[in-house]
Amino acid sequence: MRFQWPGFRKTSEKPTGQPSAQVTEDDRSPGSLRPLWIPFFLRRTNLILFICVFLAIGIALGALYGVSVRNSGLCNSNTKYYYLWTYGPTAVSTLLAALWAQVEYRSKQMAPWNLMAQEPQPVGKSLLLDYTDPMNIISLFTSAKEKHFIVTTAIAGTFFIKLITVLSSGLFIALPTALKQSHSPLIARNVFYGNADAGVSAKSASVAYGTLAYSLQYPEGTTPLYAYQSFDSPAASSFIVTAEVNVFSADLTCEVGNVIENTVDTTTGEQNPLLEPIPRRIQTYTEQANVWISTDTCDNLFVAVQEGQSMSWNGSTCTNLENGDDANRFIIIFGDWTSTTRPFERDISALSIRDGSSNGVSNNDVSTEVIDTSTDDSLVSIDDPNDSNDDQLVSIDDPDTSDDASITIEAPEASTTMPNIINNGQSTSLSASTNKPSTPTTSSTADDSGSLTAANFTISESTFRPKVALSCKPHYKIQRASVTLTKDDDGYWSPNISIPVGGNSSQLAGISGWTLTKGFAQSIYEAEEEINEHLLDFLRTAGPEGDVTSDAAVLNGSLSQIFQRVAVQYARSYLMRPTQEDLSGEVVLEETRLYVRTVPFSIIEATLAFLIGIAGFLYVKSPTVATSRDPSSIGGLSTILARSPELMTSLEGLGTHELQEFRNRLQHREFKTSVQPHSSSPFAITESGTSDMEPASSVPLTEDKIKWWRPFAVSITGRILIAVSPIAVVIALTLLLAHSQDKNGIATIDKSLAVHYAWTYIPVLVMVGVQLLFGMLDYAIKIFNPYHNLRVGAAPARTSIMENHLAKLGLHALFVAVGKLQYTVVAAGFAMMLSSFLTIVTGGLFYTEYTQTHQEVQVQRMGWFNTSHYVSSEGVKQANLVLAYNLTEPTWTHDQLAFPKLQVRANGEVSKNASELQVVVPSLRGNANCSVSSPEFMQWAIDNPNLSEGSIPTINSTVTIMGNKDWSGTGYFGHWNSIIMDFEEAPPIVASIGRAVNKTITEVTALSCWPYIEQLDVSVTFNLPSYTISNEKPPVPDKSTSKVFSNSGPTSFDDFTLANPNTGDRTSEELFGVFGLAVYGKDGVPISELIGDTNIHKLNDAVSRVYSRVVAQIMDCRRAASDDASDINGTMVSTDTLRLKQSTISTHILQGLLLAMLVCSAVTFCIMDTRKLLPKNPCSIAAVASLLAGSDLMTSNIIPSGSEWMSDRELEKKVFKGLLFRLGWWQDEDEPGVSRFGIDIGKAGGGA
C-alpha cells in the first residue's frame, strides 16, 4: 500500500538548486572542534548552582524563622506586602520546579545513552529504555528497581520541589500578636505639684464611696491605694503600656485612745478647741461630751461628742509634741449616751438642704460631723401668736418613746399663747412658764414677732460612755514605681503598680499629711449633701463584716481604707496639674504579624537538605560524556543512527510494529555507543549478538491492524477529564464564594493546626492535580508536534525533525512555538504556563478572620419600674456619682435611658462565646418638656402674693441665694424651682438662669417645664456577659414608639441636691438644681452660651439632657417586680468566631486562569488530530529508529560522516537546508507492493 501526499514524491537526491552538505575534515574531527556533548542542566557547574540555590533558600528560610521566633513575627503584615508573602514563596518554588524539570527530563532522556556509554546493554536497558513517557511515580520505582539512581534522584527531586510548592503556600501566616517594644516614646499627661486648692468639694469622697459601695470603675490615674501620673502611648494599637512614674499613696497610723477625762456641759453649736465654726442653718444650745484621751505617743487629745450622737470625729493636737502638723491627730470616738429624758430638738444641720456650690467653704482645720442615730421624726407645729394663719414646723427625733412632749416656751413676756404639738400624730396642749422647770423639760425662745428662733433642751444628768476611740496620724509619700496599664475589651485601662522595696520617697513642698486630712474631712462633709452618706456610712461600707462602733481593729481597718481611697482621689483632683512630658517605657502593641510556621518550615528545610543531596549525587554520578550531540530531536538522533547501519538494518520494517516486537527481535543482542573522545572516529551505536527473527518487512501490517499510540492526555477519557476539571473547579469556586459572602464565611473553624493545614493545602493539592492533567496534555502535544507536522505535509527540518520543545524551558518553548506559528503547542504551552499560577494564587484563596456570627435567642424581662413614686435619694446619689464625677453608669442605664433587667433564656444551644446581645427593649426616658415661660405666667408670678420674692426670678427682683453661701451676689445664677400652686398655667418647674449685680437680677431667661416620663422601644447592644453598653454602639431609640409612661416626672430631688462638679472659684456664680451639671458635667455648655434669647435652644437642650440623665438614674433605683415576664426576641452576636473566608480577588483570578486553560485545551483538541498519527510511543531510541530505518535520510548522501558532531544550527544550515520531510507510507520503488511506514524525504513535484 502506498500512501502519498498530492504534489510530493519520494527522492534520495538533494533538492535541485540547493548546495550539497559538505562536511569537511574539520567538521568531522571532534578532537579538533568539540568534546562529547553534555546536557546544559546536567553540567556540573549548573548542578553546583542548584546546590547553591537550595542552600541559599534553606539559609534564608532559617534566618527568617529565627527572626520570626525572636521578634514575635517577621514584620507587620501590611496590606502593601500582602501579595508578596502570600504568593511569593509559591512563585519561587514554581520557578525552581520549571528549572528542575529540565534536570529531570535530561536525566531520563540520557539514561540509555549513559548506560550504553559504560558497557554493552540489552535492548531493555538501551534502545527500549524509556523513562520520559511513563508517569513519574512509575519511572521512580522502575528506575530504583533497575538501580538507575540518576533517574531516581532526578525524579525524587521533582517530587521534593513539588512538595515545597505545596508547603510554601502555607509557609507564612498572619496572626494577631502582642508585640513588646522597649524604650518606646510615651507622654505623661499630669504631674504632682504642691499647691493644694483651699476649697475642697465632695468629689474626692463621693468618688471613693462610688468605687467602694457600687464597684464603679476608678477614675483614670487612680487605684484604691495609689494615684499615679497618667500617661499613654501615641500608638493607637497599644493595649499594655508600662512606665516608671511618680506614685502617690497615703495612710493613717492609728493608736487606741485611753480616756483620761470625760465631762458633759452646755455648749453652743459644734464648737471645739481646734475647729472653725461651720455655718449651719440652726444653731442650738445643747449638751456635749468633752472627752480627753491619750495614747502611747500622744497626750491630751480632745474630741467633742454632741448629745444623742453615737460618734464624733475632729482634729486635735498632742500637747507633749512641738506644735505643727506633725503634732496634729485625727480623732474618732464611738460611745453611748444615757439620760432620763430625751432631747426635744436635734442638730439637723446634717440634713439641711444646701446647693452643691456650698463646697466653697474653706477650713484651716478639720471639721466635725454630727451623726444622728435616731430613727423617728415628730412634727412640732408651733402657732405664731401674731399670725393665726401660719404654723412653724420643726422636725425632731424621738429615739426613745412616742409619749407626748412637755415643752415650755421662754419668751420676753411672762406668758404666751401655747402652740399645739403634733407628736407622732397626737395633739398636745403645752403650758408656758418663764421659770426654768426643776423637772426634765425643754424650752424654746421666741423673738418679738413670736417666731421660734431656737430651742434649748434641759436634760438631767446626761452621760456619755465611750466604747472605742482612735488617734490617727496621717502620712503620705510619693515614690517612683513601675505602672502597667492594660486595656480591656471595653477600652478601660486597668493599672497594675509595682512599688520597689526599699525605694526612696518624697513629699510635695507645702503639703503635709495634715493637709490631706483637712481635705479628707472637708470632702466627707460636703459629700453628705450630694450622696447623703456620713462618715459612719463610709466606715460600715468599708468594713461590713465587723462592728466599727466597738471593735478597734475593725474601725482601724475601715478608717484606713476610707482615708486611703479619699486621699488618693484628693491627690488626683488637687495635687496634680496637666502637663505634656515625654517618657520612655515599654509598650505592648496588638499587631497582626507575619510568622513563619514551624511545621512547613521544618519540612521544607528537610526537603531542601534532600535536594542538596540529590544535586550533589548528580554532580558526582552523572557521566561527563555520553553522546556526540543532543539526541532528543529526530534529526539529532538520525545523525547518530546514520553511523549505525547494523542497527538500522535490524530495525527495518518495524515502523508499524509494537515495541514488544522489538524486544523479541533484539532480545539476544547488546548495544553500546562507540566513540573515542578527541578523535576523528564516528559516534555510533554498535551491537553484538544475533537476531532471532526475520526482518519484519516480510510480515507487513495493514493499516487496520496497527495499534495506534494514544497517550492518556489525548484519549477520550483524558480529554473529558481535562475539559471537566477546570469547569468543576470554577463552579466550586463560584458556589463557595457566594456562600462565603452570604454567610460571612464558609464555615466556623477552630485554631488547630490540622484545620489550618486542611484549608491551606487541600485547595493547593486540587490545583496540583489540575496542573498535572494539563502537564500531561502539554507533554503529549510537544511529543506529537513534530510528527504531526511531518504527517500533514512536507515540512522543513526546523519545524519537524529538528523540533523538540521538551528540551526547552516552558516559556522558551512557548516563544519558539509562537514564532513558528505552531498553534497547538502555543495553546498547550500557554495552558501549562497558566497552570503554574494556580498553586501560586491558591495560596491566597482562603483566609481566616474573626467575624460576627448571629444566633436568635429569647430574652426574658426581669421586672419593670415602680410607678407610684419617682423621687429617690438613692437615685439622686447615683446620678451625682455618674454625672458629676464621670464614674461608670450602672449596668441597666445608659445616658438618658433606663432599661429593664434582662436575662437570656438558656433554651437550646446558647453560645458561650457570645460577646453581644442585640435586642429591642421597652425603656424609660425622662422628658423635662420645657418651653420659654410666657409673659402671662411671669406677670402672674410677680403679682402672686403666695410666692415669696425670688421664687421665680424676674428682672430687677432680688435673687435668692439657694445654697452657695460664698456667692458674692454678682455674677451668674441658675435656679431650679418647684412650683406648687393652684393655678392652671403654673408649671411644676421653673428653670431660670441669668446674671445679677449685688443680688439684683439684670438678665434672666426662664423655662417653664411640665416633666413627664416616656416609654419607647430602644435598639440596644449589650456587651456580654456584663450587659454593659459600649459608647461605640449607643442605643438607638425608636421615636415612633414613644408613649407616656407617667404624666409627671420628678420635680425635686429629695433631701439633698444635685452635685456641682466645679472645683474652682464659686464666688461669682450660684448654680442650683440641674445647672451645675449642665455647665460643668458631661457634655457641659459654658454658662455664657446659655443666657439670652439667642441661646434659648441651647438652654432648653442642656436642661432637658441633664434632666433625662438624672431621671434615668432615679428610675434605676425605682425597680419593681412585674407580672409581665414576656419574652423578647434577641440576637446574640459572637465577634470572636473564627470563620474561613474566600478571597474574592483570588477567586476571580483562578476562575480566569481555569477558563483560559479550558479554552486553550479546546483549541489544542480542535487543531491537532492525533488519531492514526504514531503506531508506537516515540520516546525510546528504537521507536524513532524504526521510523527512520530504510529512509533515504539515513544515507551518507544526506547525512555525511561527522554530522553527529554538529549542533542544531549547523545541521539546519549545512545538512538539512532545503529538504522537506514527511511521515507516512512509502512505496519501495524497487519492490512493488512493499511499503513501509516512517519518515523520509519528499520534495514538491509530480506524483511519486
From TrEMBL:
Coiled-coil boundaries: none
Keyword presence, Amino-acid biosynthesis: no
Transmembrane regions listed in the UniProt entry: 47-69, 81-101, 149-175, 599-620, 720-738, 758-781, 823-847
Region (Disordered): 1-30, 374-451, 676-697
Keywords: Membrane, Transmembrane, Transmembrane helix
Extent of the signal sequence: none
Low complexity composition-biased segments: 431-451
Positions with biased composition (Polar residues): 14-23, 414-430, 676-691
Designated name of the protein: Uncharacterized protein
Organism: Aplosporella prunicola CBS 121167
